[in-house]
Design goal:
Layout (H helix, E strand, L loop, with lengths): L21 H14 L6 H6 L3 H25 L1 E14 L4 E3 L5 E6 L6 E2 L4 E5 L2 H28 L16 H70 L4 H77 L1 E3 L4 E4 L9 E2 L6 E5 L4 E7 L12 E6 L10 E8 L4 E2 L6 E9 L1 H6 L10 E12 H18 L2
Antiparallel strand pairs: 1-10, 1-15, 2-9, 3-5, 3-8, 4-7, 5-6, 7-9, 10-14, 11-12, 11-15, 12-14, 13-14
Helix pairs in contact: 4-5, 4-6, 5-6
Length: 473
């Protein structure tokens, strides 16, 4: 067996890749020493290294992760929400009971925690002054009704007054007093009127009788004048023949002149009497006319006064009715503020509160002014009751039903907020049957905004920052 000759390996300088770092060269140094004089190049060694697969796998993982993230960011939509603190309230809110006019408490008819219904009496106030005022007004009303009956009888020149059978809700004593007083006044004024009329009628009769007597005297004088004129005519012929002296004719003429003068005086007196009678007749007519005018004015005034009194009676009855304070709604008595009988009740003073029962419940929220543009009526809400364990309770869904038109300010913290209300969905309440809601319970409310892509949540702050940066001086 021939001995094999050792292979001669040509030693060539190793070609080291220029893109290797010093750290990689140090890692490959042991392998280079074992290789000794070889024609293997570092490129071949690097191609067979297991690190290349790890690097490629890592790069692929990174590329897939970034690609998946961007696909997810551009395709998936996420919802944002505004967080607000809220309180459970009743839709109609609790009613504060007070009294408009005020007065003095007589009795408290309910206790705190009592259930009351609409119209149930709660508090009685003293009614002495109100009843006295009502009776005074009713008595005045009766007097005005009786007065109108008397005036109508006078207007129609009736012999007696026809009073109404029904004076309304009045007392018999007041009716009797008013009827008696008006009857007496009617009779006295009737007597006065009749007396004045009789005086004028007698005056008319006297003047007419005097005028008639003047007529008789005038007729007698006219007859005398006629006789004397006939006698005078017969004496003219006797005077001519001298049988009768002329002096007799002159005496007859003088007598005729006296009779004519007397007749003229009688005619004048008759005219004066007739004029006086006419004046008395005019006065008689004036008495009736003035009386009717006075009656008409008094009727108008009495009707106006009666209408005013009836309005006052209505108001007084309303005051008397409100002295028994009644419940305006079904509910539970709460926060009684006045309990002692005889205590003064000022107008508008809170007396107690009624919490409505079986009324829809709402959530009243305080929204930060910076978030007000993100919510609107109809926005979806999720309500979490902080009084319950959140792990075992589902959030209750709701819808925004009201947003205040202007902001309010908390007097204690001096912080501004907008009041908003949300109505709870019936399905959410049914999904939490063991949850009981009470007015005043605290809650945390998420007001859901419109959905946006996930990438928008990342890019929006950057874009807004650039937008502000480009506007700065």
């Amino acid at each position: 067996m021939t001995a094999q000759k050792p292979l001669l390996v040509e030693k060539k300088p190793l070609a080291i890749r220029a893109d290797l770092s010093e750290r990689q060269i140090q890692r490959y140094q042991p392998a280079l020493q074992e290789a000794g004089p070889s024609n293997l190049e570092l490129d071949q060694f690097d191609n067979r290294s297991p690190l290349r697969g790890l690097v490629i796998a890592g790069l692929a993982t990174i590329l897939v992760s970034f690609g998946g993230f961007f696909v997810w960011g551009f395709s998936v939509e996420l919802s944002s929400a505004t967080v607000a603190n809220g309180t459970i309230i009743v839709d109609s809110k609790r009613k504060t009971i007070s009294h408009f006019e005020g007065g003095v408490m007589n009795r408290l008819l309910v206790q705190e925690g009592d259930k009351v219904t609409v119209g149930q009496p709660l508090i009685e106030l003293e009614d002495t002054r109100a009843r006295s005022s009502l009776r005074s007004l009713q008595a005045r009303r009766i007097g005005l009704i009786a007065k109108l009956a008397r005036l109508k009888a006078e207007q129609n020149d009736a012999a007696q007054i026809s009073f109404p059978n029904d004076f309304g809700d009045a007392w018999d004593v007041s009716i009797d007093d008013s009827v008696r007083a008006e009857t007496i006044f009617f009779e006295k004024r009737r007597e006065t009127k009749v007396g004045r009329v009789e005086v004028q009628r007698k005056t008319i009769e006297e003047h007419l009788e005097l005028a008639a007597s003047y007529d008789i005297q005038i007729e007698a004088i006219d007859r005398q004048i006629g006789f004397i004129r006939e006698h005078r005519a017969s004496m003219d012929s006797l005077v001519k023949i001298g049988a009768v002296p002329r002096t007799q004719v002159i005496e007859i003429d003088s007598r005729l002149s006296d009779l004519a003068r007397q007749r003229g005086e009688l005619v004048g007196n008759k005219a004066q009497s007739e004029k006086a009678a006419a004046g008395a007749q005019l006065a008689l007519t004036g008495i009736e006319s003035d009386f009717q005018s006075t009656i008409a004015g008094e009727i108008t005034t009495a009707r106006v006064d009666l209408a005013d009194v009836e309005q006052q009676i209505t108001a007084s009855k309303d005051v008397l009715r409100r002295l028994e304070i009644r419940s305006p709604q079904d509910g539970i008595i709460s926060n009684i503020l006045l309990r002692t009988p005889g205590s003064a009740v000022t107008p508008g003073q809170p007396l107690l509160e009624i919490v409505p029962e079986n009324e829809p419940l709402l959530v009243e929220m305080r929204v930060n002014p910076r978030d007000i543009d993100s919510i609107a009526v109809g926005s979806h809400t999720q309500v979490r009751l902080t009084a319950y364990n959140q792990r075992s309770r589902l959030p209750m869904e709701g819808t925004v039903t009201y947003i205040a038109a202007d902001q309010s300010v908390d007097e204690k913290s001096n912080s501004a907020f907008f009041v908003a209300r949300a109505k709870l969905d019936a399905a959410s309440l049914e999904a939490n049957p063991d949850v009981r809601l009470y007015p005043g319970m605290p809650a945390e409310v998420l007001i859901i905004h419109a959905s946006r892509r996930a990438i928008d949540y990342i890019t929006s702050p950057v874009l807004e920052s650039f937008h502000r940066a480009f506007r700065e001086d």
